[in-house]
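User: I'm new to structure prediction. If I give you an amino acid sequence, what do you actually give back? Let's try with this one:
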Amino acid sequence: MTKEDQEFYTVRRYALQQQEDGGLTPSMEDYLEMACRLSQGKGFVRVGDLAASLNVQPPSATKMLQKMAELGYANYEKYGVVNLTKTGASLGADLLWRHEAVARFLQILGVTEGLLEETEKIEHSLSCGTVERMIFLVEFLKDNQEWEAAYAKFAREKSVQPAVINIPG
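Assistant: Good question. You get back a string of structure tokens that encode the predicted 3D arrangement of the chain. For your 169 residues, that looks like this:
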């Protein structure tokens, strides 16, 4: 472990550091992820659809799309449709993959109530490397089903109701 890995900062400081390094804000990530999700199959998204999906007002979505266009992630024309650039589509797909990976991991832990909220809270805080390790564990568990019985036994011994485990695809 390096000295840098041992230095503690607040969550806000880590987020600011990520932005200083050219990273997107969590809000920008949400917009890009949702734009990617909504544009699948048709190649574009409408501002109103994006705003509705994120539960924000259309002017807020327009402002964010303008920022995304400035950063080269989207092509946006006032009152028109939004097309993600090649870079935006690629990053959006990565963000969508990260979201699904975190959700699958939480499902394995037995999180059912508030799954979407928990996923949203966590996904912006994890590095790609951490998400990749989570997926590695998910894949291992899918390939080694005997862990479920051991987990259920462990939970019984600890007098804890084990989660209903269903490893998603």
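You can read the tokens as a compact description of the fold. Here is one thing that stands out. The domain at 3-91 is CATH 1.10.10.10 (Arc Repressor Mutant, subunit A).
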